From TrEMBL:
Native organism taxonomy: Bacteria, Pseudomonadati, Thermodesulfobacteriota, Desulfobacteria, Desulfobacterales
Protein name stated in the entry: Tryptophan synthase beta chain
Pathway involvement of the protein, from the record: Amino-acid biosynthesis; L-tryptophan biosynthesis; L-tryptophan from chorismate: step 5/5
Name of the encoding gene: trpB
Cofactors required: pyridoxal 5'-phosphate
Subunit structure: Tetramer of two alpha and two beta chains.
Biological function: The beta subunit is responsible for the synthesis of L-tryptophan from indole and L-serine.
CDD domains membership: Trp-synth_B (cd06446)
Catalytic activity: (1S,2R)-1-C-(indol-3-yl)glycerol 3-phosphate + L-serine = D-glyceraldehyde 3-phosphate + L-tryptophan + H2O
Signal peptide: none
InterPro entries linked to this entry: Trp_synth_b_CS, Trp_synth_beta, Trp_synth_beta/beta-like, TrpB-like_PALP, TrpB-like_PALP_sf
HAMAP family membership: Trp_synth_beta
Domain of life per record: Bacteria
Keyword presence, Lyase: yes
GO molecular function: tryptophan synthase activity
Length: 409
């Protein structure tokens, strides 16, 4: 079967809704690679998720919170000055940075915390890298009156000090994790370790489309509101679907949230953007799909950064949110099926895009989003002025100003 036939067959599979299967597999990826201690908690979570996903009361409460608490729908903004500056495709920005707490993370944390409430859980835990998922979790924990612990690598505590303060103000306990490189991978390791001993009364709010089943599909379902809104908005504004979607990929939740509602639209190209750090030819990058190999990390099979002995290697990015050596299993399937293309952007390219968006549109993007912007700028220059690119601006850049100042000195 050639590549075109494979893509056509796989699109039929998307349309028939077969992924994930009943065991949480996206083709050869995903699944549930955890110890026996966590299995009862995951099975309880899966049963609750399946029950409330179609529960009208749950869905009504979730939608009301997205509207009245989060501030949805977020705008789709035509970046006319930037588009003219580049001289190519028209760039539209999906403004997830304008949600309450300033990033797409709030969509998923609201959904999971509401599920925790329906399950009768009184405590939540989370891991965080850039701090946006931690802030969003602390926010919804306060909203629902739950105790909250957020595990965060010591290096990220240093890089994201303003978000640490925000979490503490919201009543969360921030637990520094000094193991490894003190980044997102180590925080998730520690959160999973803690959860093993606290499954009876604690709900673990995972921040991306990663982790053991049912987390990848559950987070995608809570984040797909991004793509659903963008689809309707671009049809209303431009009268047609976009030619290309672009989003950054660490674990991959904002990208999957944008991509999934367009998965059956074969005319819409999807481009995920990983962090190339100091260059993919070095060992200082986080290009998991570009340079990784298939392995198991944090309870799920996917592409990971690992050495020849299967040991997970460290990732690097100027963006704490992309500094992760794994990726959601559905992205691995999209890559293999040819449904999405994955590129990588260096720290320097991301910082250049950060400055360009500030000056051209008066918008300060998160460094994660700046990676997507950098790739969109490359793509736009290769396309005609009648083409359309939608970029997911997944978060705002206030949290990153210290890092940007440090790099631009």
């Amino acid at each position: 079967m050639d590549k075109n036939q494979a893509v056509a067959e796989n699109n039929k599979a998307f349309q028939s809704g077969v992924y994930p299967d009943e065991n949480g597999h996206f083709g050869p990826y995903g699944g549930r690679y955890v110890g026996e201690t966590l299995m009862p908690a995951l099975l309880e979570l899966e049963a609750a998720y399946n029950k409330y996903l179609s529960d009208p009361g749950f869905q009504e409460e979730f939608r009301a919170l997205l509207t009245h608490y989060t501030g949805r729908p977020t705008p789709l903004f035509h970046a006319k000055r930037l588009s003219a500056h580049l001289g190519g495709a028209q760039i539209y920005l999906k403004r997830e940075d304008l949600t309450h707490t300033g990033a797409h993370k709030i969509n998923n944390t609201l959904g999971q915390a509401l599920l925790a409430k329906y399950m009768g859980k009184k405590k939540v835990i989370a891991e965080t890298g850039a701090g946006q998922h931690g802030v969003a979790t602390a926010t919804v924990a306060a909203l629902f009156g739950m105790e909250c612990k957020v595990f965060m690598g010591t290096e990220d505590v240093r890089r994201q000090a303003p978000n640490v303060r925000r979490m503490e103000l919201l009543g969360a306990e921030v637990v520094p994790v000094a193991s490894g490189t003190g980044t997102l991978k180590d925080a998730m390791n520690e959160a999973l370790r803690y959860w093993v001993g606290a499954v009876e009364d604690t709900f673990y709010i995972i921040g991306s489309v990663a982790g053991p089943h049912p987390y990848p599909v559950m987070v995608r379902e809570f984040q797909k509101v991004i793509g659903q809104e963008a689809r309707g908005q671009i049809l209303e504004m431009a009268g047609r679907l976009p030619d290309m979607l672009v989003a950054c990929v660490g674990g991959g939740s904002n990208a999957m949230g944008l991509f999934f509602p367009f998965a059956e639209d074969e005319s819409v190209e999807m481009v995920g953007v990983e962090a190339a750090g100091k260059g993919v030819h070095t060992d200082k990058h986080a290009a998991t799909l570009g340079k990784g190999t298939v392995g198991v990390l944090h309870g799920s099979k996917s592409y990971v950064l690992q050495d020849e002995n299967g040991q997970i290697t460290e990732a690097h990015s100027v963006s704490a949110g992309l500094d992760y050596p794994g990726v959601g299993p559905e992205h691995s399937m999209f890559k293999d099926f040819g449904r999405a293309r994955y590129e990588s952007i260096t720290d320097t390219q991301a910082l250049d895009a950060f400055k360009t968006l500030c000056l051209q549109e008066g918008i300060i993007p998160a460094l994660e989003s700046a990676h997507a912007m950098a790739q969109a700028m490359i793509e736009a220059k290769k396309m005609g002025t009648d083409k359309i690119i939608v970029v997911n601006l997944s978060g705002r850049g206030d949290k990153d100003l210290g890092i940007v100042d440090e790099y631009l000195k």
